[in-house]
Amino acid sequence: MRIAVSGTHRSGKSTLIDALSDLLPNYVAVDEPYHQLEEEGYAFAETPSVEDFEEQLARSIANLDEDPRDVLFDRCPVDFIGYLLAHEDRDAFDLDEWLPRVRRALRKLDLIVLVGIERPDRITLSASDDEALRLAVDEKLKELLLDDPYALEVEVLEVEGAPSARAKQVLEHLPVQEVQNKI
């Protein structure tokens, strides 16, 4: 299966990927596009620009084109649409231009696991974290994935609770033979 873990920054995505990697050792984990691009020398603005998020969106789409089955993706194209729609310069982003590519890419996923901000918040933020952006992106992602206003038509599982509970919810959602074959 091809599973993407989606959510705003500091929501527990990477922690969930780590837990799932331990539980599904035959799966390959793909790092989020930000880290991939940074490793390749891409210079992000101090405050990410629309262009920075579009670059990550393009990489996320490319990742879905390249990687084999049995993959855990840290983020998917919808994450970057959420950031772009919440960005202060969102009018510079042409969603309609990107939607056909995003829809094609998402067809290559079997499941998106949405890790939202919980109430009370389980994550302790640092002073440098942009709480307003974090909340806005969380809201946008829930709208995009759960309400599906752009007909993305992808299966979504929203998880909550402690990291071990989140991992258990994902495993329980997978077909029994998938879990048995991969453990």
From TrEMBL:
Q: Which SUPFAM superfamilies match?
A: P-loop containing nucleoside triphosphate hydrolases
Question: Where is the NadR/Ttd14 AAA domain positioned along the sequence?
Answer: 2-155
| Coiled-coil intervals | none
Q: Superkingdom of this entry's organism?
A: Bacteria
Q: Which Pfam families match?
A: AAA_28
Identify this protein by name: AAA family ATPase
- Specify the species: Stigmatella ashevillensis
